């Protein structure tokens, strides 16, 4: 069971994860990624899938050719938790 | 450049691909798939990605844990084409 994100952590979220945006109407964050083509996009998705399975924390995500959109939230916590912040940072690190 | 689906082929589409549904407001078809867990869902997605790349025809798709939703349409044709029917049949065959 994950704890909801504390108010202090919410305050620093935009500076910790500047590439991620709040999702309107949900306690969740999202980021869109663009690649050269489908092959690059799906290679990225495969790396994210491995992160997700290793951390037992899975994204809501979609793909259209070279675009990937990832939404993170924690169903157990009813919204954002530290697990989302860790996952977002790990995803960002794949592209660093 | 893909040709739009002929009226005759549209008529037989429901019997050719009974598991696929029309997408409201679009000339496209969709199917939802459910698996035991994320690992099974992503294994399926990987096989669909290989089909997509081999056929140079890519789905619009999303995944949430054990669920995968796939939408097929042909942007070049402004809607459904034979390429979508072939892709849908190939995806169905993965699960046969």
TrEMBL record, chains A, B:
| Gene3D superfamilies, per the entry | Transcriptional coactivator/pterin dehydratase
Under CDD domains, the record lists: PCD_DCoH_subfamily_b (cd00914)
Give the EC number(s) under which this enzyme is classified. 4.2.1.96
Do you know which InterPro entries this protein is assigned to?
A: PCD_sf, Pterin_deHydtase
State the UniProt keywords alphabetically: Lyase
Q: Name one GO biological process term.
A: tetrahydrobiopterin biosynthetic process
Spell out the HAMAP family in the cross-references: Pterin_4_alpha
Q: What protein does this entry describe?
A: Putative pterin-4-alpha-carbinolamine dehydratase
| Annotated source species | Muricoccus pecuniae
């Amino acid at each position: 069971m994950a704890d909801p994100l504390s108010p202090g952590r919410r305050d620093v979220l935009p500076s910790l994860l500047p590439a991620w945006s709040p999702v309107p109407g949900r306690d969740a964050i999202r980021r869109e990624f663009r690649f050269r083509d489908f092959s690059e996009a799906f290679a990225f998705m495969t790396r994210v899938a491995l992160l997700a399975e290793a951390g037992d924390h899975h994204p809501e995500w979609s793909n259209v050719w070279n675009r990937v959109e990832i939404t993170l939230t924690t169903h157990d916590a009813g919204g954002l938790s530290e697990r989302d912040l860790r996952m977002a940072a790990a995803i960002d690190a794949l592209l660093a």
